[in-house]
Structures are given as structure tokens and as C-alpha cells.
Design a protein that fits this description.
Layout (H helix, E strand, L loop, with lengths): L5 E6 L7 H12 L25 H8 L4 E6 L18 H26 L1
Helix pairs in contact: 1-2
Length: about 120
């Protein structure tokens, strides 16, 4: 795809059975974590969706499956050298190398907050 290009693809019912579960998982991953500790039991098996996904549009799609059309609009492209990898993407060696940099950045941010407070 080129920058500013729009593409679409259609997904038939036969290929759509796992979409609600995958979409729920991705949506849950980007939700901010709630404060405090939750000890509520959540199923991780086939029973997980017996009470629904927690998202009305996904629950409706499970009750009344229909083909979906996905539309993508490419807004920008980031080159590998322009991208800063997140910690989960680093090798163990890269993680060790990043410790000192992260410590210094954390100390600097802490100092800035202390200055703002005082």
C-alpha cells in the first residue's frame, strides 16, 4: 500500500468464527487497567463467551453472524530506523543495554516532577 491509499477486504462467514473472540482480546489489551486488585474469575476456555464479550457489537455479531468488510487507510509509514522498539520486542541483550538509559530517563522525569511540585 502507498501512503494515503485506502484498501478493503471482505471476510465471508466461514472465515469469521473467531473474529469476535480475537477482537475482544485486542480491545481488552488496550483498555487501561483498573486500580486495585481484581480477583474475579474469568474463563479462558470455550465457556469464556457464554456471558458475551462485553462489547454489544461483538455480541450482536455472535448472535447474528454476517460477512464483514474491513477498510484500511494508510496514514503513514515508519521506517525501521525511525521506530523505537518497545520493551517486549527487545532481545534479552537489548533489554540489559536499555536499563541504564531507562534509569537516567526516570531520574530526569522524577526531578522534573519534584520541581513542579515545589
Amino acid at each position: 500500500m502507498l501512503v494515503d491509499e485506502v484498501s478493503q477486504f471482505d471476510v465471508e462467514l466461514t472465515e469469521l468464527c473467531t473474529y469476535p473472540m480475537v477482537s475482544k482480546k485486542l480491545r481488552d489489551l488496550v483498555k487501561p487497567e483498573e486500580k486495585g486488585h481484581s480477583h474475579a474469575h474469568e474463563h479462558m476456555c470455550a465457556a469464556a463467551l457464554s456471558a458475551g464479550t462485553g462489547y454489544p457489537e461483538l455480541d450482536e455479531l455472535m448472535r447474528d453472524p454476517r460477512p464483514l468488510r474491513f477498510i484500511f487507510h494508510l496514514l503513514s509509514v515508519t521506517q525501521p530506523e525511525e521506530y523505537e522498539a518497545e520493551s517486549w520486542q527487545l532481545t534479552p541483550e537489548q533489554k540489559i543495554q536499555s536499563v541504564e538509559t531507562l534509569r537516567l530517563e526516570g531520574n530526569q522525569l522524577f526531578s522534573q516532577v519534584c520541581l513542579l511540585i515545589s
